Structures are given as C-alpha cells and as structure tokens.
Amino acid sequence: MARLNIVTYPAEVLETVCEKVIEFDRKLVKLLNDMYDTMLEADGVGLAAPQVGIAKQIAIVDIGDQNGRIELINPVILESRGEQIGPEGCLSFPGLFGEVKRAEYVKVRAQNRRGRIFMLEATGFLARALQHEIDHLNGILFTTKVIRYYEAEELEG
Ligand code: CO
User: Looking at the predicted structure, is the pLDDT value of residue 157 above 60?
Assistant: First the structure.
C-alpha cells in the first residue's frame, strides 16, 4: 500500500485523452490499490489515473454506499438519461466546488482488474461520480461544465 501524489490543475496529464489498458497485470492491481488508498486518504469519492500522473483509462469510485469500491478500466457510457444539477468537487482542484449538470442515469460498460467486462447502472450521486471520473479519462475537467461556483460561505452552511 502506498499513497500517490495527486496532480493538481494545471497539468497537461489532466487534459489528455487517456490510453486504453491492454495489460491486466500485477502492476495494474498495485496501481488500483494505491489509487484507492490515495482516494480514501484525500477523502474523495473518486479518482482517475491521470490524477496520479498516469494517462491510462483507469478510475475508481466509492461513494460509501452498498456498491463499495468500483474499479473501472476502459469504461464507456453506453446510455444516459435525464438530468440532475448538483455540487461537485475534484481532488485536482482543492477547495473548489461548483454546480454541474449531469445525466440522472447512466449505464456503463467497463472491465475489472482481471479484464472481465461488466455493466453497471447508476442513478443520482453514483451516476454523477461515474460521469465525473469517466470525463477525466477523456481529459475533460469538471470546471469546463460548472454552471456556477459556490462561495466559501455557502459551503460552510
Ligand atoms: Co475529479
């Protein structure tokens, strides 16, 4: 277990379209485990590989619900429906929070750490987290989608 350095904006790797993972090896397992530790320590609900300086299609999400730890390798959003508007932040933008419009429902196809394909359907906050992390893998940052930023006083409430 190890904690990785989180890359903060601005950095080229955060705005890079990530490469597909083709090798499902021990190095990948170690990276996933290290990313998870890093995310928990930073109090995040998601983390994408470019945020630890690696431009590969790897992300993890754990919003603390019954789904637990979700590992997404080469994820693709197959379907999305509806919309939700809510607050969002990002470990690569410490202290910055804004309102972002996302789909209410998404269906995602991804591979797990062994390369096996799985499907995942999500709504609400989990759907939001998945969309945020998958955006990272395409070099898209939440700041490009913010409708308005929150002031510090609003966050303390
Ligand atoms: Co982020």
Answer: no
